[in-house]
Amino acid sequence: MPVKPMAIETTDSSVKSRFDSVVEVLATANEPKTGDELAGIAAESDAKRVAAKRVLAGMRLETLRENPVVPYEEDEVTRVIQDGVREPIYDELKDWTVADLREFLVDSATGEREIAAIRPGLTSEMIAAVTKLMSNLDLVLATSKMEVTARCNTTVGESGTLSFRLQPNDPADDVENMVSAIREGLAYGVGDAVIGVNPVADSVETTTRILEATHEFIDDWDVPTQNCCLAHVTTQMDAMRQGAPADLVFQSLAGTEAGNDEFGVDVDLLDEAYDLARRRCTSSGPNVMYFETGQGAELSGDAHHGVDQLTLEARCYGLAKQYDPFLVNTVVGFIGPEYLYDGQQVIRAGLEDVFMGQLHGLSMGIDACYTNHIQADQNDIENLAVLLAAAGTNYFITVPMGDDVMLNYQSNSYHDAGALWELFDLEPAPAFRDWLAEMGLWHNGRLTDRAGDPTIFA
Amino acid sequence: MTPDSNANATDPTDDRTDAETLRRVADRTPTRLDVGRAGPRPPTDALLEFREDHGLARDAVFSRVDDSLVDDLDLVTLRTRVADADQYLARPDLGRELAEESITRLHEECSETPGVQIVVSDGLSSTAVETSVPELLPVLKDGLAERDIDVGTPVFVEFGRVDVMDVIGEELAADCCVILIGERPGLRTAESLSAYFVYGPERGGPTAEKSVVSNIHDSGLPPVEAGAELVDLLANVLEQEASGIDLREDDREFETES
After folding, report:
1. Does residue B37 sit at the A interface (CB-CB below 8 Å)?
2. Lowest-confidence range among A381-385, B179-183, B188-192?
3. What's the whole-number mean pLDDT along residues B174-196?
4. CATH architecture of residue range(s) A150-457
5. So what family is this one in (chain B) (predicted)?
6. Which residue of B has its CA nearest to A446?
7. Which residues does chain B have within 8 Å of residue A415's beta carbon, measured at their own beta carbons?
């Protein structure tokens, strides 16, 4: 497929000849990630990495728009992103360099209002590009300016709030055990983002059983939240058509058409799921979709087209945006050390992903997590949680004592919620906070002494 | 319910009932429930127990199988193209290829065209290999021998991934290849072993044509039972001349006809 010839613009003529394409500049400019090394596209040296960042800094946004990393004709994700651009706003921005965009985002005069004004003119490639120029503190600072709210039964993302997904997974899909983990989580004040279960068995029967049990618990105790069973989207759709009570419809996304094919989805199917969700979800909405993503998924499915994992991650958000989701989170440390090697790479990727999601206008959260074969531990994800609470992420995933015995990995603990609220003077989503107060679990902006006692829900 | 200062001053009898209920709940689930808290943080015991389990899991990943065990089991040692533990984690592609000198060694020390070529590899848990393979391997070898299946010369591969069995099986022209390999540890057990097997092993063979018996450890599928189960499964693979998704389709047809 012919691609328009690209003029690489930089004031440094010595680097002009060193890069052949926008894809190569983007890949080389990425912070170190084992996944890019595995794909054979990472910078050979730190000097080369910085040279690519310099080229990128001088690149105009128009160059990125006109050189999508996978051609328009070949990839429906590219088409969704390109067709979604609001042209008059893009026209205002197209002469900006990537460095201009970075300096705009970190400018003290720039807030959510100013960022909201340029959002519709940005493509995922532009957002990926600016991310590559930003330091970790740049990412935290710029993310903290953005306030993206979304509403299902509750509203998440409001200023001064920090929400949590309660993840009560069980290795045998034992619903009674799930309900026990829900009781305990609610007693710690988590669960306002969603009570979301990953089933072991991807079947309509299991999905229905989980949706019914969580829905019943939420109803019985009048909990202001939403339920979700994270089976494949087609399984959830079948369950809902048979009357299963789902507040949200979930799917994992990739940043290329081929990657989504590996996940068994395409844009037509997602359109159908969105349509069904708006008609059949038991929640009030309007935001009724939930997506998970994570750097490296495309390479792992051999669907990366030679593009770096950060840029492909940005494209997941470009696709997600189409469906006005209530929640989107990266599952940042789950994929393994061949994509994100250690705590440093996981923390960097987590900051990048939440920033990119929010800059796309998504209600963005994170599963700050790690597996046991990666060079990271609970301290690393607690560090990441502190950074992202400071950045104002909308929510975190929490599991009992940080240990998910079904997915065999570790994430944030129920306990981390209270510590983060205390540190940053934050609160759960307002309706949920009021409910916690009614249950005697929240008082004067803090968890009460009764917090953590699941017998409250006996 | 109000958050007044008397909220905790409940009847001690109720407390006991609550404690029993909580223990029952915690006992029936593998999840870490009812751990309590210190301020917003976990109590010290729960925190250290968690760190201990993670430490065991990491030790299983980052330590290697003892050479003396490999000698005791009479396995020929081979190496992949991986240089060290760090590279093993970052480059799964190198763990699927044998080092040049190991290919030479394979042909020098192992008999060609076995019915079932047995491969043992540390994978992501050396602990799994050390605890389960000494029990499992004799059951597997003896069981196959009783059925007149040639097991050739079993080998041990350092820093191996599952697909390294394709290379070994192809080089030796084995009818079938089985690899006993350590699984990625969870916090509950670091000792879980898996056995993958394939009919007609060849480089680049699709994953879907492989079969697996997983969760082999003392509190899952015990190693001796796993060995016996594998003998039956491998004999069936040789008889059907298929594994993985191909075998399942055959089985389905068989069930429909009967």
Report:
1. yes
2. B188-192
3. 92
4. Alpha-Beta Barrel (3.20)
5. Belongs to the EutC family.
6. B40
7. 37, 40-42
